[in-house]
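4.2 Preliminary Data

To establish feasibility before requesting continued support, the project team ran the inverse folding procedure on a target of 297 residues. The structure was first converted into the token representation described in Section 3, and no sequence information of any kind was made available to the design step. The complete token record follows.
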């Protein structure tokens, strides 16, 4: 279909807008990934789509189109960690320490990185990968290699400078065919949205009120676990596990982030242990987070 018809569908206002069908969304996303259309039309559509806003069928159609381009590599006994591509700005990453704690538990962590995307000017997974030697159970995938079509849209997205539907679509590419996944979520209404878009791909799919939208718990929050179309909610409080980590609310530099990973405090290590326990619970290696936490002693 002529791409302008998709722009018209999302950019003519409340009375004139309409939702795209699943099939139209597949075609729309394919044209964007192929960049068969001018970058101005891509930006116009992404802005209008966000304001319309997006539907679950539209999201799933776009994800389906992406899946046709992704070069996959099986990683057994793995959990896919869905991080945002705009990075972390206020706290260090904790996943390298979590991986070290889980190294003896036969669990691989799948992470995806790329150049920084809008809208937060944070430190990215790719930044960390270039200066930290990962443990053997971290499987890092660079998007420029396994999904170059999305990678090549970086310039268009950064010129637009706003969050778009891509920020949701890109977090879980299922590149390793993992049976389990966890990603971060800010607000409760997004829980159902993510479950409707992604949960059918996994045996167990988890969402957590993670730090800066990541699958990393830094303070008291909720975990939602989806399995066989059933959703269970858990409240997790680090203080229950004797952890008194104080989050930073200011910006953190790249050097400070690396320093905390290379020489972590005792409280940060305990926080890594709790996150490891959460992942063990999500992949069904423990009946509860408490049991998983004890397993890591």
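Position-by-position output of the design step:
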């Amino acid at each position: 279909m002529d791409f302008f018809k998709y722009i018209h569908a999302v950019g003519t206002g409340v009375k004139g807008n309409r939702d795209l069908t699943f099939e139209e969304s597949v075609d729309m996303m394919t044209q964007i990934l192929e960049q068969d259309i001018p970058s101005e039309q891509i930006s116009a559509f992404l802005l209008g789509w966000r304001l319309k806003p997006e539907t679950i069928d539209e999201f799933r159609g776009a994800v389906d189109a992406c899946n046709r381009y992704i070069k996959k590599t099986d990683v057994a006994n793995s959990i896919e960690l869905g991080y945002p591509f705009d990075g972390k700005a206020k706290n260090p990453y904790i996943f390298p320490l979590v991986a070290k704690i889980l190294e003896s538990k036969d669990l691989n962590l799948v992470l995806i990185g790329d150049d920084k995307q809008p809208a937060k000017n944070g430190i990215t997974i790719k930044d960390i990968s270039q200066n930290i030697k990962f443990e053997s159970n971290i499987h890092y995938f660079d998007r420029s290699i396994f999904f170059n079509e999305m990678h090549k849209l970086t310039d268009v997205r950064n010129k637009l400078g706003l969050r778009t539907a891509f920020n949701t679509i890109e977090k879980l590419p299922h590149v390793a065919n993992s049976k389990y996944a966890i990603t971060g979520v800010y607000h409760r209404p997004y829980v159902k949205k993510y479950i409707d878009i992604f949960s059918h791909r996994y045996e167990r799919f988890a969402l957590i009120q993670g730090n800066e939208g990541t699958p990393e718990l830094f303070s008291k929050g909720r975990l939602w676990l989806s399995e066989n179309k059933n959703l269970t909610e858990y409240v997790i409080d680090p203080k229950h596990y004797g952890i008194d980590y104080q989050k930073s609310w200011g910006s953190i530099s790249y050097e400070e982030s690396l320093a905390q990973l290379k020489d972590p405090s005792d409280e940060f290590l305990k926080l890594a242990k709790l996150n490891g326990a959460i992942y063990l619970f999500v992949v069904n290696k423990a009946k509860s987070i408490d049991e998983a936490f004890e397993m890591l002693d």
